[in-house]
Amino acid sequence: MNFDLLKNIEYGGCSAKLPANKLKEALKNLPVVTNENLLVGIETHDDAGIYKISDDLALIQTTDFFPPMVSDPYEFGAIAAANALSDVYAMGGEVLTAMNLVMFPASFPMEVLFEILKGGAEKIKESGGVIAGGHTITDDTPKYGLAVTGKVHPKKMITNSSAAEGDVLILTKPVGCGIILAGKRLGEVKDQTHKKVVQSMMQLNKAGAEIMQKYGVKSATDITGFGLLGHAMRMATESKVTFKINANKIPLFEETLRLADMGCIPGACFRNQEYASENITFSEKLKYELKMILFDAQTSGGLFISAQAKSAEKMLKELIDAGYEHAGIIGEVVGKGERAVFID
Fold first, then answer.
1. How far is CA 299 from the centre of its chain?
2. pTM (predicted TM-score)
3. Is 269 tagged catalytic?
4. Beta-sheet pairing, 328-334 with 168-171
5. Residues of the chain with CATH 3.90.650.10
6. Which residue of 4, 49, 212, 225 is most buried, as measured by CB atoms within 10 A?
7. pLDDT tens per residue, range 300-328
């Protein structure tokens, strides 16, 4: 339909996250919640909470919503849903139910809201889950997302705090979508490049979760608003190891480097740099533009997996065959060093 969601939107997608340092400040004095059945809470800043129901069943609970990052309402709905569902997949789970979260201007055509919800509904159906309801309020800026419930066996949950020395690091999708989306608004990106980024954001991480379970993965996260390095730093810190990452092996969306060279570096890159850089060592040879790309906020990004070295190549082949065509091994897990991440 002919309606541009990006009018009057400054920050969209996961770049609209509250800066990590400010969130950390807000949370620091909250009382710690303890419960023998709460297997994953807020302490490790993981992708979702996990609550044990029985010896063979735990519920995964997560929520995510944000303003538009694309013009098309249907695409926005599909991307927002894929992004919210991804937290369940990052924990190694299966989706059960989803609730729509809608903030929408009453002055907008209701056909726009229909298209947003349609995009979300089709992704929920693709996930194998069901829509159980939702909630709407009026707001000057449209926002959409989901509250999602999933399931996982308590002994098979995948967390951001279990990466082990000797593992290798796999990334399933390219990075740079925040820079591409910013470049699109400036008229500096080819339509074909933008289309590929939209398709990537709409791609579910469902198959990736299934492959992780097949190979007994214990630690992973998905790459979203804090950028590859923000999420890598947090995962390495919680796992008490160091990640050694080869910047040249990280898959990038086409045109990302060109745009960064032009100075098209969104504000979220600098906020993520402020949050994470003190715990990261950068090679002196690393170009500034590539460094900032690695801080770029991703929306519905790929899985970042700590995989056993002995099975990593077979696992990578299955990920590529499952549709993650740019998946690659980008680094390794080593013993805890002075900082959480080393970028070579």
1. 6
2. 0.94
3. no
4. antiparallel
5. 168-343
6. 212
7. 999 999 999 999 999 999 999 999 999 99
Phi, psi of 135, rounded to the nearest 5 degrees: -150, 140
- Using alpha carbons, select from 200, 206, 220 the residue that is nearest to residue 312: 220
Domain 13-156 has CATH 3.30.1330.10: yes
With tokens 């040249």, the residue in question is 248
Residues 198 and 79: beta-carbon distance below 8 Å: yes
Give yes or no for a contact between 276 and 343, defined as CB atoms under 8 angstroms apart: no
Domain 168-343: CATH class, spelled out:
alpha beta
Start-end of CATH 3.30.1330.10 domains in the chain: 13-156
Per residue in 37-71, pLDDT tens?
A: 999 988 888 889 999 999 999 999 999 999 999 99
